[in-house]
Design a protein that fits this description.
It is a single chain. The chain is an alpha/beta fold. It folds into 2 domains: 246 residues, Rossmann fold (3-Layer(aba) Sandwich); 44 residues, Orthogonal Bundle (Arc Repressor Mutant, subunit A). It contains 11 helices and 10 strands. An 8-stranded mixed sheet has the order 1-10-9-2-3-7-6-8. It has a two-stranded antiparallel sheet with strand order 4-5. Helix 2 crosses helix 6 and helix 9 packs antiparallel against helix 11. It is elongated and about 80 Å long. 28% of the residues are buried.
């Protein structure tokens, strides 16, 4: 009978199913040139429903801390994440601005107060009948409780994530080396994330680059002259979002990890992604002649990632090299598991 060693080291060019907080302990010391990943954002995705806010913060802190032994001295950890734009805060007063431009009924609070003064016994149902609107409209106008998600939900505000990430890394012994801004596509009117307030929509994310103390090799030859001009030393990266999320709802574009891989690693280096998702980082690493190591707690994501790698390998084996870049771009748009 075969015996499975729970403590056997993880080997490159594999995607493992399991919790990063457990599997990171099985990676060889000082073996990873670059770890690049995007964790749960705490924005209500199905796969993060099990996390409370404190659980989420602990997850980030622990995963960052576990990177210190495995990253090479002089190596890098790159975290792609966004601020939480609708963070529920129980301490905030439940007051919402009157969105007069989207009102279905031109009914002001003063009109309601005047009518209640004339008819003090009228309840909101009788007032709604008089004004020809719903009782919810009466309630909103009188009590100002038009809170996003329902009148019994807490009010929301912006939560800046960068401070939490930097503090966790500093406590672990990693230093904020650089940060980039990823500018995505503009949102659209009917998007679920489109704003109806003065708040901005989420059209950008961050890449926080942390350094493990050690000699860092700086080699401009990793990029072409045009790549250095266009993005190598630029703080803002304009990269279109993934066009299809039918297989996984949290995919980042292939170009995002690909740039980090080209910038911070050499051919043959190992690139780690401990929230591998649909396998984008693995494919980007292979495309640039690097090895990859992937971890994901969702079995479905592991299957998607492995299939993405197999698809890439099949294509690379039978296609001309000048067609490979086109395949990579098509992969993130049209890839569906077989």
């Amino acid at each position: 009978m075969a015996v499975f060693n729970l403590f056997s080291p993880l080997v490159p060019n594999q995607i493992y199913h399991g919790d990063a907080r457990q599997l990171l302990r099985r990676i060889g010391q000082d073996s990873i040139a670059l770890s690049v990943w995007s964790p749960p954002y705490y924005v209500g995705k199905d796969y993060e429903q099990y996390l409370s806010f404190e659980d989420w913060k602990d997850l980030l802190r622990n995963v960052i801390k576990l990177h210190v032994p495995v990253i090479k001295p002089g190596g890098f950890l790159v975290i792609n994440i966004a601020d939480i734009l609708c963070f529920k805060d129980e301490s905030m007063p439940k007051i919402m601005a009157e969105n007069v431009s989207r009102r279905k009924f031109n009914l002001a609070r003063d009109d309601l107060l005047a009518m209640k003064k004339q008819h003090p016994t009228w309840n909101r149902y009788r007032l709604a009948e008089h004004f020809g609107c719903s009782e919810q409209t009466i309630d909103r106008r009188l009590n100002g409780n038009n809170i996003r998600g329902g009148k019994y939900q807490p009010q929301t505000r912006v939560y800046l994530v960068g401070g939490l990430i930097e503090e966790a890394a500093a406590d672990a012994g990693l230093y904020l080396y650089d940060r980039r801004i990823w500018v995505k596509d503009a949102t659209w009117e009917n998007s679920r994330w489109h704003t109806i307030s003065y708040r901005s929509v989420d059209e950008s994310e961050y890449l926080y680059v942390f350094w493990k103390p050690g000699i860092t090799k700086v080699d401009r030859a990793r990029l072409t002259k045009q790549e250095w001009i266009n993005w190598g030393s630029r703080g803002v990266w304009e990269i279109p979002s993934v066009r299809s999320n039918v297989d996984h709802d949290s995919k980042f574009p292939l170009e995002l990890p690909r740039r980090a891989i080209k910038l911070f690693t050499d051919p043959g280096d190992i690139v780690l992604d401990c929230f591998m998702g649909s396998g984008t980082t693995a494919v980007a690493a292979l495309a640039e002649g690097r090895r990859y190591l992937g971890i994901d707690k969702e079995k479905r994501s592991v299957e998607l990632g492995r299939e993405a790698v197999r698809s890439f390998e099949r294509y690379r084996a039978c296609q001309e090299s000048d067609q490979l870049d086109l395949m990579l771009r098509e992969l993130e748009v049209t890839y569906k598991p077989s």
